[in-house]
Amino acid sequence: MSQCSQSTDGFIKTLFGPRVGILCSQDAEIISRRNNLSFAELIRPFCTINSEIHVHDSNNQAYVIRDLHITTCDMRCSPADENAVKQLLSDVVSDAANILETSKTLSLSSDGYSVAVNMSCPWFEAYRDTLTATAPQKPHEFINHCPACMLVVSSRHPNPVEEFGKLSQHQNQIQHSTQHHSVRWMVPNTLKYYVLLHDNSHPDFERAKSVMNDLQSMYGNNNCYLLRINSKDASETQQLPDPWGCFLNRKLPEMATEANGINMSDIPSNDLSADPLSVSSTEVHPSDKKWMQDLKQKANISDKGYGCCLTLADHEGLKTFMHDFASRGLIPHIEKLIRNFSEQIASRKAIHRSIFRATRTFFGGGKTSSAPALKNYGSGGLESPELQVRKLADLYFLCQMYDQAYHYYHAVRKDFANEQVWIHAAGASEMAALANFMQPRSQRAYPAHYVDSAIDTYSTTTSDDYLALRCGLVSLECLRMQGLYAEASAQLFRLTSEVDDLRSAILLEQIAHCFLRTQKPQLRKFAFHIVLAGHRYGKVSQRSCALLCYRSALQVYRGSGWNLAEDHINFTIGRQSFNLKQLEVACESFSKLLNGSKQPTSQQAMFLHEYLQVAKRNTEATKAVTNLPVPLINHSSIAARNATSGGSVIPDSKWKLLEESVQTVVTKESPQNSSIFTGIGKSSSFKAVVNEPLWVDVTVCNPLQVALSLANVGLIYKFTKEDESEAEINVPPIKEFIISEDSTNVLTFEINPQSIGDLQLVGISYQLSIAKLTGFTSQTSISTLDLTGQQLFRSGANTSIRVCPSAPKLEVIYENFPHKMLCGELKSNKVCLANIGQCNMKNVKVAYGSHTKCLFTPPDKTLLDAQAHFLRVTGQSYEGEVCQVQTLVHRELKPNESVELLCWIHAPSSDNIHPLNLYFYYESAGNIDGQLKSRTLKYSNDVFTRPSLSVQPLVNWDNSRQGALISVNVTNISQSCAFNGAKLLCTSKDWVLGAISQTPSPEIDVFQSAKVYFEANNIHENLEGNLQKLDLLEKIGMTSSAFSVEGNNLSFKSVSDFGNILSLENPGYLLVALEWQARFQGETLVGQHYLHLSELVDSKVSLSKIGLLKNSNAAEDSSQSLVALHQLVKWKLEFERSKQHDFITSGACFVKVKIVLQNQYDCELNVDVNGMDSNQTQTTGIPAASTRFLWAGKCLSKFTMQPKKTHTVTMKACISSAGVYNLNSFSVWAVPTRIMNKIPLLPQNCHYSCLVTINDANYKP
């Protein structure tokens, strides 16, 4: 709940303090009105007695009263009607909302939500105090009845004593009359306190003292008081405190004076026969004597504020007066009443109860099912004992003897409940709970159920909304002091209704604040109830309070995903702020509705319309430029460029590596040029050249489902000129630009710099309106509005442009760029490099990524040169990103001079859209101060590739050959072309390609496959590494030929992402390019796919393949090296393929077999050849080949093989019958000598069928 300026004890003591009636004569009222106050208003700030007052109970035990508050009731004022009270409550809430304190902010965080709420709600306290002050006295609540009355007469009256007698008589008349019930009295013998009011501006003080003596002799010293006021004239200027402002609801203009100085409507008449409670008429009563008329004429009312005729001594006199009245008059009178009631209760209560119970028993007074009507206690005659007990409890409560008060309240509560007098029972329950709470050291817990039952009775049984509300407000303070905020919120929620929106708004706001005070703050509940409170405030036009509520709720709902709720709150804040003339706040709230709204299109259009209306009104009022919220600007994408096409509009990190690669090459080639790149990456300024147009691209996004119209879009900039030319900058505006709903567009501004200097881009200005698009019917109800405003660029964006002196400018023109290619296709295009600048250029280079297979050559280079280059580049394997940098022009290019080159593009092997990003670099040949030393051009284009061929090579080892047999499965996966395998190309120094078949490669149609065979022979001599070409289209005698291709004059370098220049190296295995040809739409297409034959390694990597380094005896434990260790040795068999033998003459046929073994690696081997291992016999698929045979003679040979050398072993096969036999039925074991102590001999995998046919000479078919 909110923080109040008044403590809980102070609030309860003020609400349930002694009430005193005020009855003034007309002359006394006139003297008081000199201070713009009635007498009751004059003494109101001094009704709180801060000093201690002693009091005794019926047992003569002393107690101390602290902070006693006395409430005054002007008996001549009639109570306001219900409508006037409602208007007064509304006014005090409005006034209090304008004096909000910001020092009581509470910051909380819970469940991912954070709020900072101002806990000061002065309108709640003002509403509460005004409600209780204007409430009428209830018949059953004696605590609010008056036990005393002040009679006030001025000392200037001709006969003050007689006037006091008339006032006393009139008070008796009022008290015992049945017609007037606005002021109620606690007991018949009301205390009358006689106050003689003396105006210090009148010199006759002695007469006042004489009159005072007469009064004291008649009424006693303790019941009379001489009060002196008006010690200074109103015209005297003296700054004194104003204690009356916080107590009064009326304003000074309402007390305007007439020409005679007195507004007669504010002065009561001395005619006591008139209605004492009605406001007197405006005419002077006939009973007014000449002295009265003189008094009215001399007592001029000042407009200088309240208490303008009082001094500080008068203030102290008023305090002394109220203390004297309380300590010598009021409290002793209450003591007397307590003793009297105690004696009466002791003597009457027992008799009354016994008679009542006996009568009810005799006449069968059992309880009925229906509740009886409320009994009219105390209406004449003797009061019942229950009412006397209630009065006694109220008197104890007034004297702050809360223990005794609780005792009597608790006892009488049960009696009233038994008698079914529900309103009295509810009142006693309420006061019992308060008496228990006010006890400083009570052992009893706060009886919240007493309050609940009282609220239920007030709300349902008696339908008294004021009593229920007052009970809830008082209980709220009690529960707050005990930290029971959940219980407090539940009690308050029962008091809300649809009848009184202002009351419900006040209560809902306090309920929301209770949720902030719980042990774990419940911020979502707080937000929900504070929105309900804001809604109720809005219904009663309390816009300031509603605005504060919705602002508090927005802290919870903002960014929580509750988009519709957030939009509702922002919209309401905008509307309420607009009604309160807070146009800037309204603009800010409506602007938030235009970013990421989830509302339907019509609602978004209405939001935009509301924003345009409010923002236009604000612009007209403040004459300031509006910062428009839509469209959204992507500040990170703001970019300047010096080309209209072929350039990258949006900067991307992919260009960074290319730029760094060029810097590396240029710095390595010419270290003195390293100063060119000093500061690159640190300065965000874009470099432009004077008299060269440049373009600034601003990406804007429309987040709405409503199309936006931007008119007269201009670029806001600031230019600092450094030369003496008259012209500066020319930026033509964009006349009109339509941004479709939920789309992103780019605003392009052309800038023509005509002077050298610094250009700073500030923002854009435009006229915003709702676009009129056909078919968009939801905008028909939206009127046409346009708003002129701007959007400023965020700091840190790419908004700085440096305009430099004249420099060269490169233009790249492609002739028929190949946007569509087959996978693996190789195509050349003419490229024109032209200098369209005003100075010479030199050192033209281009950089592109390793995944972009591109090559620039002079026009005289052939396809074979490009094929050799791509073959070498494809065989390179580096870690990380690698860029290729190539020098294009080795001489200076003058202005308007151009050079033609060929650009070879090798399409990737995967079908997709592949970007071709080229980063051109060139330098200025001149040496002008401030001139750009180097410039760059970013070229980006896309290549769409379609499927062509799928190649799958397979390596087959053949021991009968020097090398390996390679079969390539070529499949046509295109949909429109037929292919031919044209050539095989390689650049290996260890392998030579050879033809197998003498048949030309066949044509491969769509979805068909073909086999291409060739052999690769390992030559132990180092070749030059020239390009080898094996033509597949020749019919007879296909041979391999070598060609020398000069690649060094292409000035080609590879740069890693670490800034190192890499050299082209042998890939370590055989890499073969399969060139193919295809016919498509009458054009011959050429391309190549690559065969990565990793099984065929060169001599440099042979040892590493088996896990051995050159000078190491350690073997690497890997699956790859383990497989290689089983392929250390190959062998072939030399024998007679067919033999005839007479098995009758000799039962055994011997076949001599020569085994030639080849060491495949550059290391010494230990080898075993074992013919006794019969498990190695292999079948060939021919049934006769499964016949067993034996090796005769020496069957086991152990020897050492030198690196790359051969060894021959001779064995004899003993065959006992005719048939077909596989002679490759022995086992070979080998291991490198260096590691033979670490691993055993390993079986070698080189098994193939070596068949011999044995015929029987005696067999005749």
Which keywords apply here?
single chain, 1261 residues, alpha+beta, seven-stranded mixed beta sheet, 25 helices, 29% helix, elongated
Structure characterization notes:
It is a single chain. This protein has 1261 residues and is an alpha+beta fold. Strands 12, 15, 17, 19, 21, 22 and 23 form a seven-stranded mixed sheet that branches. It has a seven-stranded mixed sheet with strand order 25-32-31-27-29-41-42, with helices on one face. Strands 35, 37, 39, 40, 43 and 44 form a six-stranded antiparallel sheet that branches. α9 (312-362) packs antiparallel against α10, α15 (485-493) packs antiparallel against α16 and α17 runs antiparallel to α18 (543-557). Residues 250-287, 365-382, 645-651, 678-682, 774-780, 1035-1040, 1042-1049 and 1175-1184 have low confidence and may be disordered. Residues 823-936 form the TPPC8 second Ig-like domain. This is Trafficking protein particle complex subunit 8. Residues 1128-1230 form the TPPC8 C-terminal Ig-like domain.
